[in-house]
């Protein structure tokens, strides 16, 4: 790793801007990403949502949750009456990892080692944002926040990530991958229920 980055990590960033400069200046662990996609939203937000990593659209636009999974998340937030712009949105891993297939860039899940590498940043980021409730969207976010693998199905709901009050639910892309329309609908309904609970918990 870059010596200047290592030195700054040693001292610890004192603001989100400083942390974001470190993140933006770092090379992706796996080459290919256009840029680091930073968290978005106000410091002191009642809710912070943590996803897995930026996707194709997020990498191109430089914003979290703007692709198909983000649009589904937006619909669930709207259904639950959560104002997206009042929340903080970020990812466990800040760079898009993919394999090129012709002209398409196909998402590849980060390894546990990659998640661990980015974990320092995520922890500092949440220390600086100080959200009331941290929501893990899916297993990668749960791994990053808990520091160990947490099965989502069995632990869905209220969950403590160290000293952070949290909530664990599925990643929106798991709903997009569901082939059966009825199951997809049911999955979305349950997702909206989770979001309503999250809103109540964070109120
Ligand atoms: N999926 C994620 O986990 N994060 C994003 O920002 C977009 C899709």
Automatic annotation (TrEMBL):
<protein>
    <recommendedName>
        <fullName>Type-4 uracil-DNA glycosylase</fullName>
    </recommendedName>
</protein>
<feature type="domain" description="Uracil-DNA glycosylase-like">
    <location>
        <begin position="38"/>
        <end position="196"/>
    </location>
</feature>
<comment type="similarity">
    <text>Belongs to the uracil-DNA glycosylase (UDG) superfamily. Type 4 (UDGa) family.</text>
</comment>
